[in-house]
Amino acid sequence: MEKLPEYFDVSLGQIEQNGEIKSETLRDKQEEGQGLVEYALILLLVAIVVISILILLGPGIGRMFSSVRTGIS
Asked: Cβ(50)–Cβ(44) under 8 Å?
């Protein structure tokens, strides 16, 4: 038997007398998924910014550490 999508996972208290699922139940599940997508997009944006900064500043930081290492020697 095929497994139904998660938003079909409802309890009997969420089903109205005419057999329809209460609309806020489906909306809550969809909003939860939407929130996860938004967090993933924010995380992706932060990762892109951090990687860009490291690419731009990386060579300068490497030269600075090299000069410090040379000065210590």
From this structure: no
Query: What residues contact residue 15 under an 8 Å CB cut-off, 6+ apart?
Result: 21, 22
pLDDT digits (tens, 9 = 90+) for 14-65: 555 555 655 565 566 666 667 788 899 999 999 999 999 999 999 998 899 8
Smallest CA-to-CA distance from 7 within 35, 21, 34, 26 is with 26
Query: Helix or strand or coil: residue 15?
Result: strand
Alpha-carbon distance 60 to 69, whole Å?
A: 14
Q: Which residues contact 22 (CB under 8 A, 6 or more apart)?
A: 14, 15, 16
- Three-state SS sequence of 30-55: HHHHHHHHHHHHHHHHHHHHHHHHHH
Tokens in use for 47? 């990762």
